[in-house]
Design brief:
Elements: H1 2-26, H2 40-66, H3 71-101, H4 108-120, H5 127-146
Helix pairs in contact: 1-3, 2-3, 3-4
Length: 172
Amino acid sequence: MDVLFNIGQAFVMGLIAFAITRWGYVHNIKILYLQGRLNRLQFLIGLIGLTLVVSLFNNLISTMMNNVVILVSYWGVRLLAFLGHAIILSLYYVLYARRVQDFSLHGIVGICWCIFIAFTYPYLPIKSTSAAFMVIIWIVNLVLLVIPGSGKPNRYGDVALWPKKKIVKKRI
């Protein structure tokens, strides 16, 4: 029964995260746009930044859970953790969708990858699956970091050239 609860919880979290990215698109919030491309440096910076945010958020939730003394506050912390992870998952959607669009693939591939991570995350405490999932996640991230995207404009936008290269003019 726990497996069905975890799958259902991850599914609802994925739907909320997708609704957040849709809301960001409607309200013209650039950080939540699924359109566009990311180069390897932008992806690396985003991955490091989101990893730090997730670590800080998980430490906050862990500290709050250790100090819970009544049932109402326990469920309040659980709800805060759920909503916080949904918001963070929406940022991961954007990160992975825009990176795979740099390869001329549809962004749904990146979103499916994030959903896979969200579905498997509850099982990471199980030692036999933890190592396998972490190896798969590291391999995919390494592939996305090492392989350059398409060097020409594609249907998802122009080449992501950030930081922009400075052109040095020679004096005659």
